[in-house]
Structure of Ribonuclease BN:
Amino acid sequence: MRKIVAVRRVLSDALGHFNDDDGWSMASHLAITALMALFPFLIFATTLASFLGANAFADTAVHLVFDTWPEQIAAPISREVINVLTVQRTDLLTYGVLLAAFFASNGIEALRTSLNRAYRVTETRSFIFRRVQSLVFVLIATAGFLAISVLLVFAPLIARLAVANFDWIEPYMGTITLWRYVIASAVIVLGLFAVHYWLPAGKRRFTALVPGIIFTLVGWLAGSTIFAAYLDRFSSYVTTYAGLASIMVAVVFLYIVSLVFILGGELNASISRYLEARARVGG
């Protein structure tokens, strides 16, 4: 009975604060900002990777970003992304690419704002610190994607060497497609921990982040599955929005993703508040 009461209090606190603090509007802001930041990030990362000789980066980056999206949503957007990324660029580290990095960092700032609200904290760090931190996140993500791109290029050779030396490992090697899904999922989990831990103001224990992140992962899986089924059976987006259908589908999908992400932060904050209240009254 006590656990049921605790769950009710935590959920009531999380959902109540989400509603009172304009969580629905923040999800819209986060979704649009994420979509606007996606292309600049991929342009910046691909241009930098091409300069460093990683010409296969564009294809790898598209897989890492979109492999975890439902196919009905990812397919039209990924085609446009590939069209953009395969354009030859000669403005590396000039104003165009630096602006792309800056606009990509706006997506990080939107994450920070939504998490500050969810965790109910007031931002005290300077604008310069926050912007530099956001740019560092963009650079780290670029470096991570670049490393994964190089790894996947050499993956078949590594797999053959491993099988040649260790016969027992062959059943576990799988395919490149399988490893892409595994790596993309690992990137999502690590990214969630990173943004929850470093972006919001204040300090949180690493273990305190786990409930909200698990909720986010489960919510994303459920939300994307339901939305994909809706698109398959009942959608009228194509007839309603014509050529804008793919963009509208992406916006709605990112809105769902943003709602779940913010609620994950709200859940963590509510659990922490509940545990602190229990500690004050002696259990």
